[in-house]
Design goal:
single chain, 260 residues, 7-stranded mixed β-sheet, 6 helices, 29% strand, globular
């Protein structure tokens, strides 16, 4: 399995662009996947630099309904004329940040026939399975950290029902791909027990010296899992976790290639 980081907050070198966002290109079991599409066209530019032809992607996945993962979706649909884009059936919901700014998916894309709504566990074949919030029985309640959703005329703390996860099973290994792990990376890791977990941890709102972050690092380290993270994990928070988890934890930037 090969994972190429097309977009992340940081870049491996000056040859690659970066932005607050995430996009991963994955080759596994004969399939070519695009997981998230960043905030702008950064993923597209880096794909060219990394010799990735987005027109060859056969399946795309949107991890959740936020702009920094979905902003490049319209461009992808133009550049690729065949791939379906799987997303939660709640992805087009009204999602807001702590400053009450709309951070959801571009509404003009709603109704596109290539967008496939997922409401429950869904097999994509070839060892690929999508899991929804409904399918992940987590021990810890999600923490919204100020993020909210609009339900009717009421703003409520986001429960991240719009988040989905990709489990890849290849050569006896289980690899979990998660965009931001808003519903709690510790709970997800404990639920799936993957050999490898790739994605954001959403710890950037935590103090790098907080007991909560330290405890999370200990729990993640206790599992037989290797982690590749970035984006919403936070740079200082990553350094704290690295001190706890050592060789179990690695940072990924635009331009990085991970072979599993």
């Amino acid at each position: 399995m090969i994972i190429k980081v097309l977009c992340e907050n940081t870049a491996k070198s000056e040859a690659f662009a970066c932005e607050h966002g995430l996009s991963l290109y994955i080759e596994t079991n004969g399939r070519r996947l695009l997981f998230d599409m960043g905030q702008t066209d950064v993923f597209f530019k880096n794909a060219k630099t990394m010799s990735v032809d987005l027109a060859d992607v056969d399946t795309a996945i949107l991890s959740h309904g936020h702009y920094d993962h979905s902003g490049g979706m319209g461009l992808f649909l133009k550049e690729n004329n065949k791939a379906s884009v799987y997303m939660s059936g709640y992805a087009f919901g009204e999602h807001y940040n702590a400053e009450d700014k709309f951070i959801g998916v571009d509404k003009s894309l709603e109704g596109n026939e290539r967008l496939k709504a997922v409401f429950e566990k869904t097999s994509l074949g070839d060892g690929l399975t999508l899991y929804t919030a409904k399918d992940t029985c987590l021990r810890y309640p999600p923490k919204p950290y100020g993020l909210s959703r609009l339900e009717g005329d009421k703003k409520l703390p986001d429960d991240f029902r719009h988040e989905i996860y990709l489990l890849i099973e290849e050569s006896g290994k289980r690899v979990l791909i998660s965009g931001c792990s808003h519903r709690g990376v510790v709970g997800l890791a404990e639920f799936f027990k993957p050999d490898v977990l790739v994605g954001g941890f959403h710890f950037m709102k935590l103090s790098p010296q907080s007991e909560e972050l330290y405890e999370a690092g200990q729990k993640l380290c206790a599992l037989d899992t290797r982690y590749y993270t970035g984006h919403c994990t936070g740079a200082e928070q990553f350094e704290t976790l690295k001190g706890i988890m050592d060789k179990k934890l690695y940072y990924i930037s635009s331009g990085d290639v991970v072979t599993i």
